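Chain A, query sequence.
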Amino acid sequence: MHVCPVCKRSDRTTKLSVYWRTLPAERRAGAPHLARPALHDERWTAPLGLLTLGCALLLSEAWLGFVGVAGGGFWLVSLRDKVAQTAKRRADWHRKQFCRRCHHDFLP
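Chain A, predicted structure.
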């Protein structure tokens, strides 16, 4: 068992994911801060299309190709970072413990 950092007790701690699954729907609606972080529906086709268009324009020696390549590359890097942050938040959520005594969630 893990000790709650707030009340210093371990008799009522459980995994947050288990506690969340046992909550009825009306209690879940009242505690959105305990919910598992949502997956963002990232669209990869638009930045890949911009990058491809930029490469095609570069091959035709148009100066807009630089803008397309830079914009598409920046967009892809920002999407990759957002996906990595979401994956880290979800992994932390799966590791979190919840104290049923003081209603505090914490990482062990």
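The mean pLDDT is 88. Residues 28 and 51 are 42 Å apart (CA to CA).
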